[in-house]
Design a protein that fits this description.
Length: 755
């Protein structure tokens, strides 16, 4: 019989070491899951520790149950790891987000020591290396010991269960092919298959010598997303002299199509996918999450009413995939092939893709395999990049003929590029209205793509803007206010949700997340595009904008609860509700009733007394808030950078001349400004190449290592001030000192503004 022993307790942890023999007396005793970047990976500066650390645990042979073979199972070690048993290296794994196992049977003695050297150092062969999130190091998911009979289901094939289930629904029946992968099966052993319904009742069972069997379920109960996420279970046992091993997996019977005109179709019905992307970290915990953390994330996503999740940008915990199956979430699953194509990284993309598919094949929630994200940041014409994508695309189709492939293309990537048309479907990451451009550009952009390529399903893989606890009655792009984020998402909802051909839309992001290279918004080390804060304690107003469109749970929400002090005599107050009518009261006096076909209601509220108590009523639902009349604008509502190299108010400004506080688009409208900007790109190229080390052989120049200042890039960054642009370059490991920035400002001060 199989035995699984959780191995999370009583590990010794040594930071900045790869020595598994001499464990320091000062080693920290910890319990898994664990990351060494829980604090420094979220505080900004792009200086979190990246290196090797040792995890060590001792155990006795008698601590293990009686079995023939023993495997150690590591559910997540970021990003490379080496496993040692009694100081002997027995396995190495590259890729920080998937399950992997190793047979340790022959190395076990009466007294034993297991050590894992985990390394998240920068390199050129393991993805990810360049991305807008923290690469937390650690043994951050469960570690188990699995004891099995010598005859057992394969535990080493890309970390899978040894069980593959393929249901195909047609003509009122479901043909369910069940395949198993077994080691050391003898002539006297048999396989006992059983299919059970959601209540545990056997639908069909049989005993067989075959490692592949096909079952027919008449009138199957279909898995139908959030409306009815019905699950069956397949169990297979190895029987000989008693039961030798057993594996089981839930699965769902469903059919789906991604149609270029009608969007996502589930079980023959149009089923628009509207949801979010999700990162797996939390404040003060990094990526070392508990099951309770995963549960809370799912509860919040369900409360909002989403029916799809893009699990970015890597393989997530199996527990969360299980939750998605149970709750009916439709998933995009992807590997961390992101931002920068690495010439030496091809084998890693292949191994990570194999692990993703093998380990997650049985989940009915997953409908697409993601090949890459924004990988053309340095250009889309690299032949090696193109070939890598074709290899991955073919691999996915070979391993899984039931699911299409997809990419998340960066906004700057032209729609005619060969890369865009390699996968079966495509989605784009656009930030019009935040990184340049206007919120009004989304609809026309997608209409243009759809018109030119009417047979290619198109979706939105990322869109969003940042919001912290800053406030204004006159929101503008780049101000980081909760009010601008709310306005942005109102406009995007109206444009995107009314275009049925969009196969899926995924907000970036459901939660704020750690991005230690970020130095903006007044709270460094995070990306604040989340609809919910990183600690999950505050739902921003934009969360409720989506709830108004997507949730069936009646509610009403008054926006701006953190924007209390207001100076204007009449102030606009926004209300979100999924009810058809809202009435607003100010100090008990009705301000009238409004109806809205877009679920957004706008009231002009008198602000002439010290305190105005607000009450919104929508059917049986109510919400309360208050505003205070003040003479001067509350300075606590205005963004102030913390820990920035340079603040806007430190910059010398000369009337009629440019400075770091001016927008790049305005500067480059002048000839001298264009020349200056070309010079800046030369500086960026030099910074990305790094200082020369004369002791090392000359390295080959990386193709496209610095973004080209083409029209698409200029359209994106033209709305940035120079100061904001330079601060964001930290995400690409490019930093400027205060002295360098002041020198840039001097050069800009010499350029006259056009009259």
């Amino acid at each position: 019989m199989r035995n699984i022993i959780n191995f999370n307790e009583n590990w010794l942890f040594v930071k900045n070491s790869a020595d598994v023999v001499n464990i320091s007396a000062e080693a920290e005793r910890i319990t898994l899951p664990h990351t060494w970047n829980a604090v420094d990976g979220q505080d900004g500066g792009n200086d979190y520790f990246r290196g090797s650390c040792v995890y060590c645990k001792e155990f006795d042979r008698t601590d293990l149950p009686l079995n023939d073979r023993y495997y150690i199972e590591i559910n997540g070690a970021n990003s490379s790891a080496a496993l040692f048993v009694n100081d002997e290296k027995i396995a190495v794994h590259h890729g920080g987000y998937s399950v992997w196992r190793a047979d340790i049977t022959e190395k076990i003695k009466e007294k034993n020591k297991i050590a894992v050297v985990v390394d998240n150092s920068a390199n050129e062969c393991v993805y990810p290396q360049t991305a807008d999130f923290t690469f937390y190091g650690g043994l951050y998911r469960d570690v188990n010991i699995i004891g099995v009979d010598k005859v057992h289901f394969d535990l080493e094939y890309f970390g899978g269960k040894g069980l593959k289930i393929t249901p195909v629904v047609a003509d009122g029946t479901a043909e369910v092919k069940v395949e198993v992968f077994v080691k050391n099966l003898s002539d006297t052993d048999t396989l006992v298959y059983e299919i059970c319904d959601g209540e545990g009742n056997a639908v069909e069972s049989r005993t067989s010598k075959n490692t592949e069997e096909v079952f027919t379920i008449a009138n199957p109960h279909l898995w139908h997303g959030t409306k009815d996420p019905y699950l069956y279970t397949a169990t297979v046992k190895i029987a000989g002299e008693g039961e030798k091993d057993c594996v089981s997996s839930r699965f769902g019977c469903r059919s789906f199509e991604i149609h270029p005109e009608n969007g996502f179709i589930l079980n023959g019905e149009e089923y628009p996918l509207r949801g979010v992307s999700r990162h797996q970290d939390r404040w003060g915990k990094g990526n070392a999450l508990s099951r309770e953390d995963h549960d809370e994330d799912m509860e919040l996503i369900c409360e909002m009413g989403a029916n799809t999740i893009r699990l970015a940008h890597y393989q997530h915990d199996q527990y969360f995939y299980d939750l998605c199956d149970e709750k009916g979430m439709v998933l995009w699953a992807e590997i961390p092939y992101i931002s920068r194509h690495m010439a030496d990284g091809r084998e890693n993309t292949i191994s990570q893709m194999k692990e993703l598919i093998v380990q997650n094949y049985n989940h009915p929630s997953i409908v697409v395999w993601g090949l890459s994200n924004e990988i053309t940041m340095d250009g889309a014409k690299d032949p090696d990049l193109i070939e890598n994508h074709k290899i991955l695309n073919d691999l996915c189709h070979q391993m899984d003929s039931t699911r299409p492939t997809v990419i998340a293309a960066i906004s700057m990537c032209g729609i005619d590029e060969e890369y865009v048309h390699i996968p079966d479907i495509v989605s784009y990451n656009h930030y019009f209205g935040w990184y340049g451009g206007s919120v009004n550009e989304y609809g026309p952009w997608f209409d243009n793509f759809h018109k030119k390529y009417p047979d290619t399903p198109i979706g939105v893989s990322e869109y969003g803007c940042e919001a912290l606890n800053w406030h204004t009655s006159n929101p503008e792009s780049g101000d980081y206010t909760e009010e601008y984020q709310a306005y942005y998402h109102e406009e995007l909802i109206k444009q995107l949700f009314t275009r049925n051909y969009l196969w899926a839309t995924h907000v970036w992001n459901m939660f704020d997340f750690g991005a230690d290279a970020r130095n903006e918004g007044g709270e460094n080390g995070q990306n604040h595009k989340g609809l919910v804060t990183i600690d999950r304690k505050y739902k921003k107003d934009s969360f409720y904008a989506y709830k108004a469109w997507l949730s069936d749970e009646p509610f009403v929400h008054i926006c701006g609860k953190r924007y209390v002090d207001r100076v204007e005599e009449t102030t606009k107050v926004t209300v979100y509700s999924n009810q058809p009518e809202v009435e607003m009261f100010a100090n008990g006096v009705s301000l009238g009733r409004q109806t809205s076909d877009v679920h957004f209601f706008y009231f002009n509220v008198p602000n002439t007394v010290d305190v105005t108590n607000l009450k919104a009523v929508a059917g049986e639902c109510t919400d309360h808030s208050e505003i205070h009349r003040v003479e001067k604008f509350n300075q606590d509502y205005i963004l102030r950078e913390k820990g920035a190299v340079l603040n806007w108010f430190d910059v010398t400004e000369i009337e009629g001349r440019f400075s770091l506080n001016d927008k790049i688009g305005d500067i480059t409208k002048t000839l001298r400004g264009k020349i200056w900007f070309m010079g800046l790109f030369l500086v960026l190229a030099k910074k990305q190449s790094g200082p020369k080390d004369k002791t090392k052989p000359k390295a080959k120049k990386k193709k496209g290592s610095t973004p080209k200042a083409d029209s698409s890039l200029m359209n994106m960054i033209g709305n940035f001030t120079v100061l904001r642009f330079t601060s964001m370059l930290g995400m690409r490991n490019v930093t400027f000192t205060k002295e360098e920035l002041l020198d840039i400002n001097k050069k800009l001060n010499r350029i006259k503004k056009p009259r």
